[in-house]
Structure formats: structure tokens, C-alpha cells
Automatic annotation (TrEMBL):
Ranges where the record places region Disordered: 1-22
Name this protein carries in UniProt: Uncharacterized protein
Organism listed in the record: Aspergillus uvarum CBS 121591
């Protein structure tokens, strides 16, 4: 997978913080166990999924979500309209076991939550609200480029909700996840259609392999720079996910598509009870 070509787009808000956004969709103690709206009720628009956290509209905390931003409210209204058109007096709204975890809301690109343990299910769900918080994410520090505080606040609430609803639920143990970042500069004459094809098929390979909890890529900036990132259940999942023929084709095309690519790996550690979180350098064998 590689950073995608696209028009620069970045949502801004002068009045709402990332923390307010997270609180606006958090569950309360009175709500029922979490279910997913069917992915077909959610937009397939790349920009809505990348920059406005539209995938979070799958999370069914209550009959209607309360989005924090005007853009999210519009997306929620569209999802509600689609749901209303689907539902009948005798048929409930369709649910799903497959989660949107990338800008691709299409069959073959979705995460089957049934293949994961509780912790990975909950982290994947919390990551549906991931979105950039600054326009220069292509070059800015990774930890300062996304609404991480909101993501982990939502994860903390999801863990509490699951523990409350299931008597055998255990608290969140301290654990780590494998993170990959790709910083790139595209060549001015890079073939956008070919890049999209390589990226989409590579993502399908990774999803079929298993363990990819989140894939995000931005839009190239004025200097053709971009950022893409993957959050994996484990390093081994990432290794297996990159073995397919489309990944091989993507690596082979890198020289003709990019002026430069900077690849890095990080360890995301989430503390016991989601009491804290941090990104650090990935060192093989440490914490595994």
C-alpha cells in the first residue's frame, strides 16, 4: 500500500476540539451493547472517510449518532436517510460484522471483526474516528497529526461499555500494536490511475491476510508530499500482509512513481485499562 494521489482537502474547525468530537459520539451507561450499521448505509466517498471520520457512522451506540461537526452531521443525516429507506415496519435496520477501516468502503476491503479478539475489535472500532488535525500531516510529527486523544478516549469508553454489558468481560491489559508510516513525494508525472490500482489491490491482499486494524492515507500537498499509515495487530500480520503479488508490483513501481519514500515502524503501547498510550520506536522482541 502506498500514499494515494488526490486533491488537497482538509477539514478545519475554529470552534470544536478533537476532544469535543470524541465526547459527542461516546456511549453512555444506559446504552445497549455496540452493534454496527451495515457498511452499505455509509458513504463510499474517499474524502468523507479520510477527513471526516465517516466510518464512525457504523458504530451504533444509539438510534442516531450525535456528530460533533457540521460535515459529520451531514454525513449522519445521509446515513439516517439511507437507513430509513431500507427499514420497514417489520424489518430492523441491517447490521454488520464487517467494519470500514480504510478509505475503501467496498467488499474485500472491510475488516471481519469475528476474526479478532476483544481488544483488537475495540481498537479497530475506536480508530473509525481517526482523522488529521492539521493540514501539514505529510511532514508534521506523526503523534501530532491526528486526533489520538479522541481515539483513545473512545477506546476507554468502549472497554468500559463492554465490561459493563458482559459479566465475563475483563479489563483492558497493557498491550502493543505494530504501526507503519509511509512518507512520500510523488513524481509530478506519476500515473494516478495506476497508483490507485496498486494501492487498492494491495489493500485487499492485506485485508485477506488479516490483522490490519486501520489504513489511512491523505492527499498530496502542493509539493506532492503525502502520508499513509497502517496499524496492525502484530508485526507478523504486517509481514504476511505484504507478501502478495500486488504488494510486489507496488514495490517494483516505486522508483518510477516516487521521488522519495520514507518508511518507519512504531510501537503503539496502550496501557492497562487504557490508562495511557504512547508511540515509540519498534524494536523486535521488545514487548512481544
Amino acid at each position: 500500500m502506498a500514499p494515494q494521489i488526490g486533491k488537497p482537502l482538509y477539514p478545519t474547525s475554529d470552534t470544536e476540539s478533537a476532544e469535543e468530537e470524541a465526547r459527542a459520539i461516546l456511549p453512555t451507561k444506559t446504552q445497549t451493547p455496540l452493534q454496527l450499521n451495515h457498511h452499505s448505509l455509509i458513504t463510499t466517498d474517499f474524502d468523507a472517510l479520510r477527513f471526516h471520520a465517516a466510518a464512525a457512522l457504523q458504530l451504533r451506540f444509539s438510534p442516531a449518532l450525535k456528530p460533533a461537526t457540521a460535515a459529520a452531521a451531514a454525513a449522519a443525516a445521509a446515513a439516517a436517510a439511507a437507513a430509513a429507506a431500507t427499514a420497514t415496519a417489520t424489518a430492523p435496520l441491517p447490521t454488520d460484522t464487517h467494519l470500514i477501516v480504510s478509505p475503501y468502503n467496498l467488499p474485500g476491503h472491510l475488516l471481519d471483526l469475528r476474526t479478532l479478539d476483544r481488544a483488537n475489535q475495540l481498537l479497530a472500532q475506536a480508530l473509525t474516528i481517526l482523522q488529521p488535525t492539521r493540514p501539514d500531516y505529510a511532514t508534521a510529527p506523526y503523534t501530532e497529526s491526528f486526533n489520538w486523544a479522541s481515539v483513545f478516549e473512545l477506546l476507554r469508553q468502549l472497554v468500559a461499555l463492554q465490561s459493563q454489558d458482559e459479566e465475563d468481560a475483563t479489563s483492558w491489559p497493557a498491550q502493543s500494536f505494530y504501526v507503519v508510516t509511509f512518507r512520500s513525494r510523488l513524481r509530478a508525472d506519476a500515473d494516478g490511475e495506476r497508483l490507485h490500482l496498486l494501492d487498492a489491490h494491495s489493500h485487499q491482499e492485506a485485508m485477506a491476510s488479516g490483522g490490519l486494524l486501520k489504513y489511512w492515507f491523505g492527499s498530496k500537498d502542493a509539493e506532492h508530499r503525502n502520508l499513509a499509515t497502517c496499524i496492525w495487530r502484530s508485526r507478523e500480520d504486517a509481514r504476511l500482509g505484504g507478501l502478495g503479488p500486488w504488494h510486489k508490483k507496488a514495490r517494483g513501481a516505486a522508483r518510477e512513481m516516487y521521488e522519495s519514500i520514507e518508511f518507519s515502524t512504531l510501537r503503539l503501547t496502550v496501557g492497562e485499562g487504557v490508562g495511557g498510550w504512547e508511540f515509540g520506536e519498534w524494536v523486535d522482541g521488545k514487548g512481544e
